[in-house]
Design a protein that fits this description.
The chain has 315 residues and is α/β, with parallel strands linked by helices. It contains eleven helices and 14 strands. The strands form four sheets. An eight-stranded mixed beta sheet has the order 4-3-2-1-5-6-7-12, with helices on both faces. A two-stranded parallel ribbon has the order 8-11.
Length: 315
C-alpha cells in the first residue's frame, strides 16, 4: 500500500486531500506538533515533528513512499508585520529543510515529493496583458513579499531533485471551498444580504475548486511524467465582481444588494494584505491540461453550484 506523509495535513487542502487519498486506498501519515494526537480512522495516523527543535519521527520518514508538503502559516490570517512575514516564510522553508535533511540521512522509499506553492509567485497583470493565456510557469517571480516568499518556498524543496526524487510544485490559486479560505470570506456577508465587490471588482481571480486541487495533488503523485512547477488554477479566471455575483445568485436567488468596498477601507482593515485582494492575476492552466489532467469543475458556475448544493444539504 502506498503511504503519503503530509505536512500541513490539518489545513483546508490537507484535510480534504486526506479524505481523497483514503478513498483511493492510500495510507496517510499526518505530521503534527501534538505528540498525543491519535487517529480514530483506519489508514490515517499521526507522527510527531517539531520544526524549532528540528525533530521529526524517523519511522514515518522511512515508511513513506510519497511526501506532500503543505505546511505554512496562513498568508491572510494576520497583518504583515515583520515578525509575521518572517513566520510566513520560515514556516514553509524551515519545514522543507527538516524534511529534506531527514531524507538525506535516512534510508527511505520516497518516490515523489509534491510541494504547495502559490500564484503569489506572479505579480499584477500588466496593462495591457499581451498574452491571452495569462501568466505561465516560466515567468519570473514578482519582486514583492509574496513573490519572494514563493521563490524561497520553491527553492527550499529543490534539493530533493538531487536525491533522484521526482519533485512537483503546484502554484495554487484561490481555492473555492465551503470549509474555509477566501471563498468563505467572500460569501460570508451574503448572510446579511450583502454581496461585497472589492474595489472596482474588475480584478481577475484565478481560482480552483477544492475537489480539483485535491485531485491534482493525487494526479501529481501518480503521474510519473509530471515534474517541476504547475499552475493549479481552473481554465476560466473571472473578475472578483463576477465571482461574488455568481455566488450571490446561487445562494440568495437575487435577494441581495451589491456593495462596493472602496480600496481605502480594505487598506484600513487588511493593511498590506489589501494589495492581494485588489490585485488582478490572470494565470494559465495550459501546462497542467497538457499533462492530461481534466477538471471536474472547469467553470465558475459549475463550481459554485456544487458548493451551494453541498452547503444546503449540510444545513
Amino acid at each position: 500500500m502506498p503511504v503519503v506523509l503530509i505536512s500541513g495535513g490539518s489545513g483546508l487542502i490537507g484535510t480534504n486531500l486526506t479524505r481523497h487519498l483514503i478513498e483511493r486506498n492510500y495510507e496517510v501519515i499526518i505530521l503534527s506538533r501534538n505528540k498525543e494526537k491519535v487517529s480514530k480512522k483506519p489508514k490515517i495516523s499521526y507522527a510527531h515533528w517539531d520544526i524549532k527543535s528540528e525533530q521529526v519521527d524517523e519511522i514515518a520518514i522511512r515508511k513513506a513512499t510519497h511526501i506532500v508538503h503543505l505546511a505554512g502559516a496562513g498568508v491572510m490570517e494576520k497583518r504583515w508585520r515583520e515578525k509575521y512575514k518572517n513566520e510566513i516564510v520560515e514556516s514553509r522553508t524551515k519545514s522543507a529543510d527538516l524534511l529534506i535533511r531527514s531524507l538525506q540521512k535516512l534510508n527511505h522509499k520516497v518516490e515523489c515529493f509534491v510541494s504547495a506553492s502559490a500564484i503569489g509567485w506572479y505579480g499584477e497583470d500588466p496593462a495591457p496583458f499581451k498574452r491571452s493565456e495569462g501568466f505561465i510557469e516560466s515567468d519570473p517571480p514578482e519582486d514583492s513579499f509574496l513573490g519572494e516568499t514563493c521563490r524561497l518556498w520553491e527553492g527550499s524543496v529543490s534539493p530533493v531533485e538531487d536525491m533522484g526524487i521526482r519533485l512537483v510544485k503546484l502554484r495554487t490559486g484561490i481555492v473555492l471551498s465551503n470549509d474555509g479560505g477566501a471563498y468563505k470570506e467572500y460569501v460570508g456577508p451574503l448572510k446579511f444580504g450583502i454581496a461585497p465587490i472589492l474595489g472596482g471588482g474588475k480584478q481577475v481571480v484565478s481560482w480552483i475548486h477544492i475537489e480539483d486541487i485535491c485531485r491534482m495533488y493525487i494526479y501529481a503523485l501518480e503521474n510519473t511524467e509530471m515534474e517541476g512547477s504547475y499552475n493549479a488554477v481552473a481554465p476560466h479566471p473571472v473578475s472578483q465582481k463576477k465571482l461574488i455575483l455568481e455566488a450571490a445568485d446561487a445562494i440568495k436567488n437575487k435577494f441581495y444588494i451589491p456593495v462596493h468596498v472602496p480600496p481605502f477601507l480594505l487598506k484600513l482593515a487588511l493593511g498590506d494584505r489589501s494589495t492581494e485582494v485588489l490585485k488582478s492575476a490572470t494565470v494559465s492552466d495550459i501546462k497542467i491540461k497538457l499533462s492530461g489532467f481534466t477538471f471536474l469543475y472547469p467553470s465558475l458556475q459549475a463550481a459554485i453550484n456544487e458548493l451551494t448544493k453541498k452547503n444546503n444539504s449540510a444545513s
